[in-house]
Structures are given as C-alpha cells and as structure tokens.
Amino acid sequence: MAWNPDQYILFSDHRLRPALDLLSQVPLISPSVIYDLGCGTGNVTALLSQHWGEAIITGIDNSREMLAKARQDHPSIEWQFGDISNFSPTSKGNLIFSNAALHWLDDHENLFPKLLSQLRPGGVLAVQMPNNFSAPSHQNLYDLAQSPEWIDRLGALVRPAPVHNINWYFDLLSPLAEKINIWETTYFQVLKGKDAVLEWTRGTALRPFLAALDEKDAQVFEGQYAERLLEAYPIRQDDSTLYPFSRLFIVVQLPE
C-alpha cells in the first residue's frame, strides 16, 4: 500500500496547522535528540529542525515514497526507513514528536508507555492524531466497504476506531508523567473544488481500500463514495466545502 506524496500535500496548509499547534505546546527549550515518528514528506521534521537548529533530528517513516520526497526537499536532515511500532533507538530522545501517524497503529495501551520508555529523564512525547472516525467522511467509507457489493473484498479493512477518548489517555499516561497536557480541537477546514473531501481522503483514509481493488473496481468504489460525500458535504455557493475535522493532542513530560 504505497503512499502518494503529491496527493498527501495537496492540503499541506490544513495538514500543517495541527503540527504547529502541537509544537507550540512542547515545554522544552533546547532538546538535543529529537525523533519525528511517521515523518512522511518531512515538512514537519523541517519545522522541528528550524525551531531547534542545534538538535540531532531523525525522521522515521515506513513509506519509501514519502522518504524519497523528504530526502529530496530536506537533504540536511537524517531520514530512516522503519516501522514506528517497533521504535527502539540506540540513543534515547529528549523529544519524540508524532504528527498524524500513531492512529495507523493499534494497541495504544502498550504503544504509548513503550514510547515513553524511549525518552530521557525530563523528555517529552508530543502526539497529534486525527479523531474524525465517526464523521460522515469516514463513516460513509466504512459503510460502503461493508455493503453487500464490497464486503467480501473490503469489509476486513474496516477497523474499530483506533483513537480513544481523552479520559482514556489521561488515565493511561498520568501515572507515568510529571506533566500531561491533553486537548481536542475541531478545525473547520474550508476546501475548494467539487470533490474536495474525496481529494482529502484519497491522501489518507481511502488509500487502503483503493489499494485492495483492481483499477476498474477502484474507480467504481471511489465513484460511489464520492456521491455519498457530496451529500454529506454539499458545495457552498462560493465553490467551497466546509469540512470539520477533529484532532486529539497529547503532550507528556517525564520527571527529571
């Protein structure tokens, strides 16, 4: 299941804003070792590098396509191909940063404490995850995949919502932390074009479903999904579509 960097960065302004909001809440002055998990095309990693120019920064991702784009655009940063679910660096970090990546992984009950164990004393884990799985954009996708026409080929790809609620993460992480900052934000994104929400999901949630089909069936499935999206998110008179998108933020700092 390959990532398409060009598709993903179509909405780079909207995708970058949560990363900036997360970065603004990191309570560190001069971390020396930083890891960006699920770095994608490296745009956020580059921001971390600009913010902490003296730090050793490593971007890690399991998409060779995304890393190729990252290396092309930001050759001075260290990039590593790897599975972030098995993240175990030789040198522990002062900051582990992850923007819109950990929701692709299950078993958060074990994942988050494991990530905290890869931090130095006083280190920070800063995470942003989409939390839009009950929204029409996602629910229509899951319902269509589980319809009689598609369930045999796509039904198994429908996952339970991977992101828990704020109370769940607080109860999990607060016993391990010196400080914990958790919040949720809904961004009311203004997108342009007839199939704006479809274009958004092509870069993320829709990908595994299309990858499981041949080209002809993928076009049929995408067309049916597009019709549902236009009903759920009608185009406004100015040719814009209002697409609310919720995201969960977690910033955890260990004791010194």
Number of domains: 1
Rg, alpha carbons: 19 Å
Shape, per Cα inertia axes: globular
Helical stretch tally: 11
- The CATH topology annotation reads as Rossmann fold
**In which order are the strands of the major sheet placed?**
3-2-1-4-5-7-6
CATH superfamily (homologous) name: Vaccinia Virus protein VP39
Largest sheet: 7 strands, mixed
- Which architecture per CATH? 3-Layer(aba) Sandwich
CATH class: Alpha Beta
Give the strand content: 15-25%
| Order of SSEs | HHEHEHEEHEHHHEHHHE
Q: Averaging pLDDT over every residue, what do you get? A: 93
DSSP E strands, number: 7
Helical amount among residues, as a percent range?
A: 25-40%
Poorly predicted sequence stretches spanning 5 or more consecutive residues: 1-10
**Overall SS class:** alpha/beta
Distance between the first and last residues' Cα: 41 Å
Task: Name the features.
7-stranded mixed sheet; Trans_acon_MeTrfase_C; globular; 7 strands; Methyltransf_25; cytoplasm; 256 residues; alpha/beta; Rossmann fold; SAM-dependent_MTases_sf
Task: Characterise this structure.
The chain is of the alpha/beta class and 256 residues long. It has a single domain, classed as Rossmann fold (3-Layer(aba) Sandwich), CATH 3.40.50. The chain is built from 11 helices and 7 strands. The chain has a 7-stranded mixed beta sheet. Strand 1 (33-37), helix 3 and strand 2 form a beta-alpha-beta unit. The protein starts with a helix and ends with a strand. Mean pLDDT is 93; it is low at 1-10.
